């Protein structure tokens, strides 16, 4: 993987952790996720007339990715509602890399180099250690953990779908914008059905935070899509999850959720894995 691709993915990871922290710290997380989706959708609606349309062959992938992204959004809301950010974020994001690596290698047909394979293993182990740094989950934690793991599986699914499709789309920006636009429609409709009369008033809380998060979210994932056209799918997906390191730092420094020796050691392992992947 070239240094340029590594830099782009790590930049995307930073942006991704920022918008997740914005969503987690919002007073109303469902409203925040809805505003994030709305801002991204409106941005894409304004841009699409000036962008080439994706090739017709990838529209089924766009439909599948849109549904998976919507599931991911609501799964994230549930996980953040049930558990703390510093733990749910690593579990949700850390579930994805190994699943993507296995599917990319044995289904998609993108073999990894030896360094990439070892690096993915080291990063995944570090992410798991971050998720478990406060001890094994108790029975009380089970609903939150299940929500986070389910969210992680949705992440792995849309990552593979998009990793295959974006190479065939003929346009990264066009592909990305259609997914975010369609996803915003689904999220708006579902939230409106849940909130009913409280729908519009709920969007007046933390409006600036949500709208800003939407632009950050769109930028972060579009960068990843570009990287997926240049690098190995599993390696890109794993590097992207280094956003967990930033999320853990935000959880400790901003949300005062603690860091500790275990998280420091796990973070060092993740950095080592990144160096191996980027070798």
Automatic annotation (TrEMBL):
Q: For this UniProt entry, which residues form the secretion signal?
A: none
Indicate what this protein is called per its UniProt record.
Answer: EamA family transporter
The residue ranges crossing the membrane are 33-51, 58-80, 100-130, 142-161, 173-194, 206-227, 233-255
Q: Which InterPro entries match?
A: EamA_dom, EmrE-like
User: Domain of life, per the record?
Assistant: Bacteria
- Could you tell me which residue ranges the EamA domain spans? 143-277
Q: Which UniProt keywords apply?
A: Membrane, Transmembrane, Transmembrane helix
**In this record, what's one Pfam family?**
EamA
Spell out the GO cellular component terms annotated for this protein, sorted alphabetically and separated by semicolons. Answer: membrane
* Family that this chain belongs to: Belongs to the EamA transporter family.
Residue stretches in coiled coil:
none
